[in-house]
Write a structure and sequence with these properties.
By secondary structure, this protein is mainly beta. Helices cover 0% and strands 49% of the residues. Strands 2, 4, 5, 6, 9, 10 and 11 form a seven-stranded mixed beta sheet that branches. It has a four-stranded antiparallel beta sheet with strand order 1-3-8-7, with no helix packed on it. A hairpin with a 4-residue loop joins strand 7 and strand 8. The chain starts with a strand and ends with a strand.
Length: 129
């Protein structure tokens, strides 16, 4: 499967942004999904995850309440809605997919980058103060 992240850009602090991640290719397979971010000189950081079923989500503690992850399976698309953006949210945001067996693990979520099989190319979010 190929993942294409989009929606990044330059936004003022306090603003909102919605990132999208579109899957193409082997979309008949089933995937748990997640968002990660990385800034120069730092390791990639988990941001949010969603189960294949969409029923379970998990967030980095520091962004809870401002970020919302969701997915629209019919469109093979995952979203990350970000509210009240802060300068420290500036990063390249990556979407990721983990191939799972939906019959046995439909509600499982994954927060470690090493668990994911597929990665998008990243989209830059820059927040100005």
């Amino acid at each position: 499967v190929q993942l294409q992240a989009s929606g990044g850009g330059l936004v003022q602090a306090g603003g909102s942004q919605r990132l999208s991640c579109v899957a193409s290719g082997r979309t008949h397979d089933t995937y748990a999904m997640g968002w990660f971010r990385q800034t120069p000189g730092k390791e990639r950081e988990f941001v949010a995850a969603i189960s294949w079923s969409g029923s379970n989500t998990w967030y980095l503690d520091s962004i809870k309440g401002r970020f919302t992850i969701s997915r629209e399976s019919a469109k093979n698309t995952m979203y990350l809605q970000i509210y009240n953006l802060k300068p420290e949210d500036t990063a390249v945001y990556y979407c990721a997919g983990k191939l799972i067996d939906s019959s046995t693990m439909p509600h499982r979520i994954y927060t470690a980058g090493k668990d994911y099989n597929y990665w998008g190319q990243g989209t830059q979010v820059t927040v100005s103060s």
